[in-house]
Amino acid sequence: MSILTPTKGAQTIYRINPVAKLATAFLLSLALILTIDWLSAATALVLESVLLAWAGLSVRQFFFRTIPVWIAAPTAGLTTLLYGQASGQSHFEFGLIHVTDGSISLAVATALRVLAIGLPAIVLFVTIDPTDLADGLAQVWHLPSRFVLGALAGLRLVGLFLDDWRSLELARRARGVGDRGRIRRILSQAFALLVLSIRRGSKLATAMEARGFGGDTERTWARESLFGWRELVLIGIGAVIAAAAIAAAVLFGTWNFIVG
């Protein structure tokens, strides 16, 4: 069985309060944002990869969901390699491109850091139910109900973007205007999707105001949002990974504080 194949125990991640997942992702991101070095990012990535086995995603789901991260990491690394700060021995130079020992080190660190921040963030996010997140934000973090309900409505509409894009594509093909000019077609569909999204958002906002969701009255919630030992364990694991990454970089002298 694959290490990413869902198991009964893996489904525990879905029962953890979403605000705990947000807190964990914040801790990991904060620790890696403070420094640009390959060791801290590599340490965090190795420790995170062990935990991703219990995320409840199959191999196909994992790589499909994280495609943007796998694209962004080498892209950021390549850009840093070619145009990063030059230091140490020079290996290649042409115009603005200057590959040195320093730019190579920064490129590796940048690519690893994107993976270490992006992969757990996406995996934690895809296991969040929007309604559970709204309950947690309102009952655990005590955020204003108007903000929470607006965020919930927005998250509910995110899933419609892909359906709208497919519908627009099929409609254009049915009219015979979607078979040629890929770049022009994508730009045209993107604009149409933007217009459609604005119209839908305006209608939703009007409907929510009409139903009293915009009032300042204190609200009650149908489902109780619990925050217990599971949530504390997840946050603790995130804190341990963040601390281990920082400690490894400091102990081996690779710590490179981002400020200065």
UniProtKB/TrEMBL annotation:
Pfam families on file: CbiQ
Protein location: Membrane
Protein name: ABC transporter
Membrane topology label: Multi-pass membrane protein
UniProtKB keywords: Cell membrane, Membrane, Transmembrane, Transmembrane helix
Source organism (scientific name): Agreia bicolorata
Membrane spanning stretches: 25-56, 62-83, 104-127, 232-258
Keyword Membrane: yes
